[in-house]
Design a protein that fits this description.
The structure is a homotrimer.
Chain A lengths: L1 E8 H13 L3 E8 L7 E8 L4 H12 L2 E5 L17 E5 L2 E7 L2 E4 L1
Antiparallel strand pairs in A: 1-3, 1-6, 2-3, 4-5
The structure holds nickel (II) ion (3 copies).
The site of one nickel (II) ion has 2 residues of chain A, from α1.
């Protein structure tokens, strides 16, 4: 048994929890602030069998890896809005910091 | 030294923390959502000496084990309330998911 | 790699996180209640290389150690305020409970 602690972006948490649930991994979500990543992150605790760790890590990687996202920039306030042509810009989103911890005992009551 | 991480139902947290305090176990409560159990759970971190782990686990088991609870059902809305005889029903409550983690160093400043 | 879990007082968390950031330690802050210390504490998770643990612990100790603080007492309500001379009193603040956990794997995606 291992305990995976994953610090991820809030916006990735729903799709990651869904993907983990589909494979029957049970997750507990802790509210967190600041930290390894930007503001607005979430810490997930995932208990899993030692031989399932690689699979769970693969799911975490797939759902959270750093990636570029096109966003429409806000048009500049007070400028000449007529002549302003907003061009989408790339920002980096996602990312995960993951610890796999050894577990002495795992129990369910 | 071990670190016990217990994910329990919110409703069991007060009585468990009380029971652990009586035996001088120190607990830290993290707010959690979703997870190993139903919505509305709490994660407790309990630091304890290696030779006290079994005793602490026994207390956790006693205060959180899954059990049946009789609840009065809500009477059906819009139905003929006069002829409706509410019968208490059994629901399952409680439960705990517990990890005992090894600790390299324990310090208090 | 080690995972340091530090339960500290809320009021010490900002200056500790700042001090850890200056040395490039990355921290994640969990909201916690009750616990090892008085009400109003914070749990920090700090990932660091095994050979940096002592340095990180030194920073935690410096920023959180129990210490006396002079506070002006509230003047007694309904008493004869004219004849009441408030004298600052010493209260104990700070303190940290720290676990250093072994880590099997550390990954960043
Ligand atoms: Ni969904
Ligand atoms: Ni009580
Ligand atoms: Ni600052």
């Amino acid at each position: 048994m291992k305990l995976i602690i994953a610090v991820i972006e809030d916006k990735d948490s729903h799709r990651l929890i869904d993907a983990l649930s589909e494979k029957e991994y049970k997750t507990t979500k802790l509210s967190t602030t600041g930290g390894f990543l930007k503001e607005g992150n979430t810490t997930l605790m995932i208990g899993c069998n030692s031989d399932a760790v690689d699979d769970a890590l693969e799911i975490i990687k797939n759902k959270t890896s750093k990636r570029e996202q096109m966003v429409a920039p806000i048009s500049p306030m007070g400028g000449n809005a007529d002549s302003y042509i907003p061009r989408p810009i790339n920002i980096e989103v996602g990312g995960a910091t993951v610890f796999v911890l050894p577990v002495d005992q795992f129990l369910q009551f």
